[in-house]
Amino acid sequence: MTLKYLHKSISELESTPLMPMLFVGHGSPMNAVEDNEFSRMWTSLGAQLPTPRAIVCISAHWETKGTHVTIGNPLETIHDFYGFPNELYRQKYPSPGSPSLAQEVIDNIQSTHVKGDYQWGLDHGTWTILKYTYPLANIPVIQISIDHDKDAQWHYKLGKELAFLRSKGVLVIGSGNMIHNLRIMRIAGNDFNAEYGYDWAFELNDILKNKLIDGDDLALINYRSLHKDAELAIPTPEHYIPMLYVLGLRNKDEKVRFFNDKVIAASLNMTSFIVGE
Q1: What is the pLDDT of residues 201-232, one digit of tens each?
Q2: Residues 22/173, Cβ–Cβ less than 8 Å
Q3: DSSP string, 9-45
Q4: CATH at 260
Q5: Which of 75, 135, 174, 248 is a Cys-bridge partner for 23, taking CB atoms 3.0 to 4.6 Å apart?
C-alpha cells in the first residue's frame, strides 16, 4: 500500500472502508527535531492508522489566490521559516508526489477551478508531522492550498467535495492550530511546550472541543461568535481553516478522539483530533 499506487488513478482502485481523518495542531517547526510529547504522539499515529494509499494535506502554510494542488513529482521539502537551528534546515522528507491524484482532485471539485501547481512542495505544516507518522516517506503526498479570499463557510463546503478520497484509501489531514496568535505569545520559563495560557485560551479550547463532540459545525464555522476573545485567539483564519476541511468530510455519526490536547505559549493550542477511526 505505498508506491505501487503512485501511477494509478484512484478511481480505478477498489473501494476501501472509509479512511479516518486527522486535524493536527502542528505548532513550532522545532517539533520536527525534538523528542517531545507531540512528536511521540505523531509517531504513535502511524501505528494506529490504516496505511493509506496516499495522503492529501491542507496546511495553514500554503495560502494562494484561488485553489491550487501540488502536481509535481518529486516534491521539494520546503523550509518556510527563519531563525531556527541549522539542524532544522537539514531535514528532508523525500515523499513522492502524485500527479494522478492531483488531477483527480482537479476533476472532482466542481465549485471552483483548481489549478495544478508544479512549484510548491511540502511545507512544514505537512512534513514535520509526516516525518514521524510515516518516516519511510514512501506514501505519495499532495497538498491543497487555502484560498485566502474565501470565507470559512466556503472552505467547509469545499471539504465536502473531497469525500471521494475517503473510500479510496486516502488519508486527509488538516494541519494548523485552532488557537494561534504568535504576536501575544508568552513562554513559561524556557519550555515552549509547557502548558501555559491566557484564561480565554483555555476557555476557548474547551468550547471548541465541546462543539466538535456535539457536531455543531455551524458554530465552528461562525467561530468569531464562540467567545468574546475569539479574535485574539484566531486573529487570522489560515491556521483554523484546515480544521474546517476535516469537518466538511465528517459524517454525522462519526466521533472525534482528541490527542495532544494542550494550550502552550499562552496563545497557542496543540489540540488535535481523529475522526472515524
Answers
A1: 999 999 999 999 999 999 999 999 999 999 99
A2: yes
A3: -GGGSPP-SPPPEEEEE---GGGGT--SHHHHHHHHH
A4: 3.40.830.10
A5: 174
Strand runs labelled E in the chain = 21-25, 54-64, 67-70, 114-117, 141-147, 170-176, 256-259, 263-264, 268-269, 272-275
- pTM for the model: 0.95
Report the sign of the C-alpha dihedral through residues 13, 15, 20, 23, in that order.
positive
Q: Provide the residue range defining the domain that includes 196.
A: 3-275
Domain count, the chain: 1
Summary mean pLDDT of the chain: 95
Q: What does the block give as the cell for 163?
A: 469525500
Q: How far apart are the first and last CA of the chain?
A: 18
Q: Which of 30, 27, 32, 5 has the alpha carbon at shortest distance from 16?
A: 5
- % of the chain exceeding 90 in pLDDT: 92
The region, left, alpha or beta by phi > 0 then psi within -120 to 50, assigned to residue 46 is: alpha
d(C-alpha 161, C-alpha 111), whole Å: 8
